[in-house]
Amino acid sequence: RADAATALTDGSMAARGLSQATLSQNDGLTFMDESDLCKRISTSNSLPEEMLIPNTSETHEISTSNPEAVVSENKVSGQETILEPFTNVPHSLTMQVESPEGSASMDTESQAANSSPDRIVEDIENAGLNDSEIPFPAEYEKFWKVVEDNPQDFTGWTYLLQYVEQENHILAARRAFDHFLSHYPYCYGYWKKYADLERRHNNLTEADEVYRQGLQAIPLSVDLWLHYINFLKETLDSNNPETDAKIKSVFEHAVLAAGTDFRSDRLWETYINWESDRGNLEEVTAIYDRILGIPTQLYSHHFQRFRDHVQNHLPKDLISPEDFINLRQELASTNEHFDNDGTPRNDLAAKIDINDPARIVSEIENMRHRIIEVRQEIYNHNENEVSRRWAFEEGIKRPYFHVKPLEKAQLKNWKDYLDFEIENGTLERVVVLFERCLVACALYEDFWIKYAKYMENHSNEGVRHVFSRACTVHLSKKPMVHLLWAAFEEQQGNINEARRILKTLEESVPGLAMVRLRRVSLERRHGNIDEAEFLLQDAIKNSKTPNESSFYAVKLARLLFKVEKSLPKARKVLVEAIDIDKV
Fold first, then answer.
1. Which of 55, 263, 340, 535 is 20 to 30 Å from the Cα of 209, by its Cα?
2. Model-level pTM?
3. 173-200: buried (b, 16+ CB within 10 Å) or exposed (e) per residue?
């Protein structure tokens, strides 16, 4: 794993800027506090609560540990969310952002074409065996043993996954992919490979499930959202009246989760094209109204397309009837089309006089000009925001996850970008940038610590969730982030949780004196002197060298003398330590 090359000290998952932010939902505007936004962004920030309901009756479960319960309750504006429930997602998979094109075995596009069911599947079908009776491939255990002994062996995982794909053995593949993605959930390409494998076996429900779990792990992955949307387009019944509503729902979840990413342009364009193909011109305008205010890489391209959209259609088809009437009234006021008493004429809401073609053309052009003019101000402001971030974005050379270390210049760019956004951006933009950063820098604990410290100003639950993701998935053997998490929980009064965190770390990385002493200090601060004494005695007993034993003996003697006020006990411990040293 890569070691941090720069010192980054502040950080955390931010929540939406105001203490109560609003998101469009089926029943209108629902207020969300900062903690809720943190959960939305960092776990399943694009997925509604019902999508996490266990559904184990239909699909297999990922074979890892505790399910993650932190979800958002977003719904799509103006319609009922109709996405099917997810199976419970393991706690270790709930994190989150870009595609790892540089990772090994990332050629997902050609996979479906190059792989077809092999002789194993045919033999199984001929024998009439069910899934539980399918024998694993002959060399599976050889590849599995490598990663079982060393889960951090990324190359070993790629060999294993390549092998199970070649063998086309669905149960072996599930076991391999489930375990791999529990360790490396940010590898977007492997979620795609996993879903493709299920689809090749005609397991459409399972493939859908894999996509959803992947999107919970990396909600900012534009690539994975687009693959999932294409999957739905190809597999859902086009004659079903609910199909379009379901796809629109997924589009909305996608732009809520990843739409503020600087490189989210393809997602927005795909959404616009989909609505345009269905003739929903008013919806297209509404989407442009959203994207024109978001700093993205192709901001000017979006504005030019919006201008073309307005010029190629009648104004009455582009905006709502109410907005259309208001716009006509505004233009009529400018042209003094009012009665003597200052009120609009009754015909303003009616159709244009068809006996005056020149006036028809003039009014249409004036309306088009006004529609564009209103958005021009938004575009100008957005252009300024883009220019302020452009240099930072140009400095991001590897936005995807990989186990290889990042260059120092890359780490410094992320640090500087985060500092800039914290100082100048909205809370939501800070959240999104942290999540983007942690995909590329997932193995650098300084960034996780920076994220957690930043979140302390907004949400204790957010801090806890950042630490949890860091310690349970990406940095299970990094002591500093664990120690800070334990200190945070102790500060919040969760003493048992602090004990659990420190004990888990010591079991994962035994022999660290700082961890044992932190456990001793925790017990001492809360009056559990007997437990503190036991921990030090246990450390002396299990010491591997005389120096280590002497070190803990001094600590124990000090505890007995300073805290228990027992000079005889302290003297006895030191004498025994001296005797051991003599031997």
1. 263
2. 0.73
3. bbbbbbbbbbbbbbbbbbbbbbbbbbbb
Q: Rounded distance, CA 155 to CA 284, Å?
A: 45
Question: Within a 13 Å sphere around the CA of 74, how many CA atoms are in the beta-carbon half?
Answer: 29
- Give yes or no for residue 516 having a pLDDT over 80: yes
Tokens of 461: 């639950």
Q: Distance (Å, rounded) from C-alpha 543 to C-alpha 538?
A: 8
How many Cβ atoms sit within 10 Å of the Cβ of residue 229?
Answer: 19
Q: Is 139 helix (H, G, I), strand (E, B) or coil?
A: coil
pLDDT-above-70 percentage for the chain: 73
CA atoms within 13 A on the CB side of 253: 34
Which string of DSSP letters, residue by residue, matches 465-521?
Answer: HHHHHIIIII-TT-HHHHHHHHHHHHHTT-HHHHHHHHHHHHHHSTT-HHHHHHHHH
- Look up residue 25 and give its DSSP letter: E
Q: If we measure between CA atoms, which residue out of 64, 66, 30 comes closest to residue 48?
A: 30
CB 96 within 8 A of CB 436: no
- Angstrom distance (rounded) from CA 305 to CA 311: 10
Rounded to whole angstroms, how far apart are CA atoms 364 and 86? 48
> CB neighbours of 119 closer than 8 A, spacing ≥ 6?
none
Provide the 3-class DSSP secondary structure of residue 335.
coil
Residue pair 32/456 in contact (Cβ under 8 Å)? The answer is no
The DSSP letter of residue 441 is: T
Phi, psi of 103 (to 5 degrees): -70, 160
Write the pLDDT tens digit of every residue in 190-202.
Answer: 999 999 999 999 9
Tokens of 369: 């000009």
Whole-number Å distance between alpha carbons of 422 and 220:
19
The gap between the terminal CA atoms of the chain, to the nearest Å, is 40
Query: Band of the pLDDT at 336, cuts 50, 70, 90?
Result: low
Tell me how far the alpha carbon of residue 571 is from its chain's centroid. Answer: 55
Q: Please provide the size of the chain in residues.
A: 583
Q: Each residue of 363-400: pLDDT tens digit?
A: 889 899 999 999 999 999 999 999 999 999 999 999 99
Q: To which residue do tokens 């006089």 refer?
A: 353
Backbone angles phi, psi at 292, to 5 degrees: -65, -15
Window from 127-131, 189-193, 285-289 with minimum mean pLDDT: 127-131
CA 462 – CA 14 distance, rounded (Å): 8
